[in-house]
Amino acid sequence: MSRTVFCARLNKEAEGLDFQLYPGELGKRIFDNISKEAWAQWQHKQTMLINEKKLNMMDPEHRKLIETEMVNYLFEGKDVQIDGYTPPSEQ
Fold first, then answer.
1. Cα–Cα nearest to 46, from 33, 30, 32, 25
2. What pTM value is reported for the model?
3. Phi/psi of residue 48, nearest 5 degrees
């Protein structure tokens, strides 16, 4: 049985996550307000960001940067700026 959420990123009703994937209050907010589709999009962006900036997820500062970018992307409607990356549509 899938659950539906009103996705803050996609601005529409969509299939919600099956369980909370991120800890704490932010994780709950994501679980309640972000769809599987938007989360998958974020995961893709996050991977690119980690690779581009050579982030180490053991580093608290790097984790904080990722979390800030995640909130901006999922809740503020901002895109992730990745230096040196041009989306295929803009080449």
1. 30
2. 0.86
3. -65, -40
Cα–Cα distance for residue pair 13/47, rounded to 1 Å: 26
In a domain, 91, yes or no: no
State both tokens at 75.
């809740």
89 domain-assigned: no
Each residue's pLDDT tens digit in the chain (91 positions)? 689 999 999 999 999 999 999 999 999 999 999 999 999 999 999 999 999 999 999 999 999 999 999 999 999 999 988 776 555 665 4
* Number of domains present in the structure of the chain: 1
Question: Among residues 37, 36, 29, which one has the least CA distance to residue 75?
Answer: 29
Please state the φ and ψ torsions of residue 71, each to the nearest 5 degrees: -65, -45
